Task: structure prediction
Amino acid sequence: MPGCGAPGEYRAPKSRFQLAEYWWFCLDHVRGYNAAWDFYKGMSPGEIEAQLRADTAWQRPSWPLGHVGARLDDAVAGDPLHILNAAGFQGRRGGRVGAEVPAEMREPLATLGLGWPVTMDEVKTRYKELAKRHHPDANNGDRAAEERLKTINLAYAALRTRLAEPRAAAG
Ligand SMILES: [Zn+2]
Result:
């Protein structure tokens, strides 16, 4: 990272198209880099699924691939960066989300599987996708889906409130 004098001992893929090419950072900067990087940015749910199925780099998937959908959401939302570990990413030692993410945003962002920073439009788009997929009507009245939808609704409400505040108060 320009201006940083700490040794670059931690690597992170340059992009999802360059998973074998790395930037090297100090611990603090690799955490910030990871927190800001939404691996699935711009991809539809179908594309994400295809990516997971097709990419032979996933030698150690940490979730069942037979039934994507809800489980994929849980996996992605629970720990987006775990996916990088599966792809051979190294250098992350327990830090779930970078320090620059406002503390009260971490849980809602993780629930919606979003990175930081994020725009209201991105939040709305992701919320609509998830709300549609987890709606009980789309899951034969499944109670678990209903619970997930409640959690998603709460996360959306929290993000919407926070993002509506003036930018000056966000720091
Ligand atoms: Zn650094």
About this structure: Confidence is low (pLDDT under 50) at residues 56-75, 84-99. The pocket of zinc ion is lined by residues 1, 4, 6, 25-26, 28-29 (CB under 6 Å).
